[in-house]
Predict the 3D structure of the following.
Amino acid sequence: MEASQRYVIETKRDQYAGHNCFLASLRCILDHCGCRYSETQLFFISNSLKIRYGNDLNEIGRYTVDGLNEFSKKTLATVTTLRRDAGEMIPEKMLKMLKSGMIMLDVDTKCLNYNKLYTENENRKHLIVLYGIDINEKTAHVMDLYMLDYKENVTVYRGKI
């Protein structure tokens, strides 16, 4: 296997679950770079006001990733985000981008086969962190820092997909 076909960033093993997939992913990426922010601080810096109501997860507000523009202006920290629905997840491109740091992926939950809750229910948008890729094995190394189970417990997934 060519070395250029695989790249995995060494990360902390003790990742902890967050209160929101966007803020937890952002916190994880920044923490890896040595920037320590709480999710509350990140919420206000990114100006990502969203109001969620009802059990069916209806929301009012702007798309959360749009808050990254505000965040970058205020902190000069850049976080790369790739969206599945925009055709941006090209393995060779992702491998090259990973060499500059972890990537926040905007994905559909139906594609996240490590959690039955995702695959057995209605598809939703979700944010996870990409920290590695192996093009030959067709695998990605991801962290899901806001993974719900059927009892509404929040845990972390770290592994291959």
The mean pLDDT is 83.
